[in-house]
Amino acid sequence: MGLFQIFDPSAKPVPIGIDLGTTNSLVAWVADGNPECILDCDDDPIVPSVVAYLRDGTLNVGKPALAYLETQPSETIVSVKRLMGRGHDDAQTQRDRAYRFLPMQEGQSNVVRFAVHDRAVTPVEVSAEILRTLKRQAEDKLHAVGGAVITVPAYFDDAQRQATRDAARLAGIDVLRLLNEPTAAALAYGLDREKTQGTFAVFDLGGGTFDVTVLTLDDGVFQVRATGGDSQLGGDDLDRAIALAVLAEVGQQDTRDKSLWRACMLEARKLKHALTDADEAVFSLDHASLTLSRAVTRATFDQWIRPVVERTGPACKRVLRDAGIPAGSLDGVVLVGGSTRVPLVRAYVRELFGREGLTDIDPEQVVALGAAVQADILAGTQQNDALVVDVCPLSLGIETMGGLVEKIIARNSTIPCARAQQFTTYADGQTAFDVHVLQGERELARDCRSLAKFKLSGIAPMTAGAARLMVTLRLDENGMLTVSARDEATGNEHTVEVTPSYGLSDDDIEKMLIDSYEHAEGDIKARVLTERSVEAEQTLAATRKALVSDGELLDEDERAELDGAMAALEGALQERNAEKIRMRSEAVDRASVPLAERRMNRAIRDAMRGRSVEEVAEQVEHARGVDAHVAEHSARRDET
Amino acid sequence: MVARDDFETLGLPRAYLLDISVLEQRFRDLSRSVHPDRHASAPAADRRLAAEHAMALNESYRRLRSPMTRALSLLAIAGRPLAETDRAEPALLMEIMSLREEVESARAEKRDTAPTLSAVDTLIQAKEAVLARVFDGTQWPVDPSALQDAYRAGVSLKYLFRLQEELETSDENL
């Protein structure tokens, strides 16, 4: 980094990576090929994920918000990530002691609503405030910020991912990708890939979530084999265990005093930090309703937190089994997340995997750094050709007769993926069909996470069992779900109106956006025009680039049609007519299909021609080790 | 989009015995070409197409990776797909039942279950040998009587793999 930077107003927007954490959040970018975290004015990369809503309607985010933790515990929101994508009736919501929640009104979306002073805020809005702060911090350094990769726990379900997307949208951030946190960490570790080859486990214990992922690094491809975890387990739970243990010792079982509970949790966290290095530390509380000072040894501390730490064990074992890789065959275990600083956690990892965890990169920064690398790759700014191939963490299924779940997409399927399932009618003349989409591993629908319900209607009346309805579940590369349905008999595509079981509706988000724009720029029409123009410019730029490199793949007529469509779009852009821009963008899109198809076919041919099967086999012989244990099961049979 | 079978998608010869490492390598090579991230800054038509190809690739990879779905894929290509309702021969069903009972009683009496598990493995290997004989290095279309053998082996494997999985997972849960 130079001593000073010259501000170039025409500089390209810089893509950023954001780690939106339970306790802390960070933002990073890639400078000359190396990812680095962006520091605040105190040279600190960490923004505490805390938002304090003040009586006068203003708010504080990050460090300034910490001051309000004890004085106004109900209006100072911490660990909001735990409530993302959750309903107001969730057990997790009920367990949260510090806040006042508003009951759900008739007709409202099922989301958590904090009561802060005289208004209601949802976790999505709270997260959006944290994202805005991070974006501003990045803008202060980079001036123009482009799209962002935002990390989420690998074990986040669809509702939690959607909530994160909604928060980004409210914050005015263009999301390039939701990236799983352990995968991000691996990406940061695997940069120097001359040295890094093999199969690794990433053990990620953060403030509120736990993920464990097994992945193979091979020649720049990061292939996730299996992932698992617990989206409600983290450092917060260690703090809670400490606080409860100390309070129990002094006979204080009542945790309803919000201010005392907050103070205890803060002191518990301090004790945890102190005992990372020291063998003994003091838990001292000086609160209006309780004063105490207690020396705590590492041994006592370990005893308090052991049950929480051991909750990570089953997920680790399951992931190794799903990946088909015994712990002994791993080439390394990467430690991620602030909670992996706790000595007992490290000892437990050693016990589980039989080796010391890697901590070469700061466990608190590694996820943000990896997110920045992925943002850089996706924005195409650098010639980094690493590729992440990820999986879905949880099975997706549909409720069938008797409340059972039929799995359609199995957990740890590589994404993007699409799978279809055929349904039929069970009554004569039936013209509509209810479909309930669920996520989770349990057999009963009521034990899985409800994602959405929808009605397939407009089926031609027939005898029972005669209709053939193909329902397709699709997971995109963000791990997010879309559903489509087709009547096989008529070929009719059915419109699927999905009502999310949890989370905000599009209308809610739209209204929040309008509210925030009322304070800022105002006119929605202007916003639509701006958004469409930006998209159209991107379409034109991408198409021109494709034509420069592969224009010869089109014949004269096809070329003329595409050129014509592009010229028409340029005209619409000059007229500044939003509707015309939309229609002509679609025309460019249609005209570019032949080019896209030929480019894709050539790429596939090249990939196949690059190596014959024999060459691949030969290369594999040399590189045995990476996949040997994976192959063992089949190879053993091959020999017989 | 051209409909291709799983082996064509991965650029591999149709065969039951497959070196998984070769499959993995092929999958990664092709992912480098078709994964949507490789087309992130390309026109929308390219991105849609990439997503479709990646989904097809991932699905074929999933099917070829596991022996059971690989067998199903081969039988489907050969025109003799397995149906949900296909039942194994009574003799095999009896054998499976007695093997299951054998493992249960061995566990109850705290005896070693390994001999029974390896008996299951031997049965599986015999059926797999049939599939390999019929499909590997063969001329397509597959000879009808050989295909009938493969079909029967496929039906048996459906039961045997399920039994093996049951025994292995319940072993872990003990």
Distance between the termini of chain B: 48 Å
DSSP strand content of chain B: under 5%
User: Quick one: overall form of chain A?
Assistant: globular
Helix content of chain A: 25-40%
The fraction of residues in strands of chain A falls at 15-25%
Structural class of chain B: mainly alpha
Query: Can you tell me the residue ranges of chain B where pLDDT is under 50 for at least 5 consecutive residues?
Result: none
Write the CATH architecture name of the domain at 396-505 in chain A.
Sandwich
Number of strand segments of chain A: 27
Q: How many alpha or pi helices of chain A?
A: 18
What are the key terms here?
heterodimer, A: 640 residues, alpha+beta, Substrate Binding Domain Of DNAk, Chain A, domain 1, Substrate Binding Domain Of Dnak, Chain:A, Domain 2, six-stranded mixed sheet, five-stranded mixed sheet, globular, disordered N terminus, disordered C terminus, B: 174 residues, mainly alpha, Helix Hairpins, 2 domains
What does this structure look like?
The complex is a heterodimer of chains A (640) and B (174). Chain A contains 18 helices and 27 strands. Chain A is of the alpha+beta class and 640 residues long. In chain A, helix 3 packs across helix 4 (158-170), helix 6 (235-249) packs across helix 8 and helix 13 (524-550) runs parallel beside helix 15. Among the domains of chain A are: 396-505, Substrate Binding Domain Of DNAk, Chain A, domain 1 (Sandwich), CATH 2.60.34.10; 523-603, Substrate Binding Domain Of Dnak, Chain:A, Domain 2 (Up-down Bundle), CATH 1.20.1270.10. Helices cover 39% and strands 24% of the residues of chain A. Chain A is globular and about 85 Å long. In chain A, a hairpin with a 5-residue loop joins strand 5 and strand 6 (59-61). In chain A, the strands form 7 sheets. In chain A, strands 1, 2, 3, 4, 10 and 11 form a 6-stranded mixed beta sheet that branches. Chain B has 2 domains: 6-65, Orthogonal Bundle (Helix Hairpins); 90-173, no CATH class. In chain B, 39% of the residues are buried. Chain B is 71% helix and 0% strand. With 174 residues, chain B is mostly helical. Chain B has helices spanning 6-10, 20-34, 44-65, 67-77, 90-108, 114-135, 144-173. At the A-B interface, helix 11, strand 18, strand 21, helix 13 and helix 15 of A face helix 2, helix 3 and helix 6 of B.
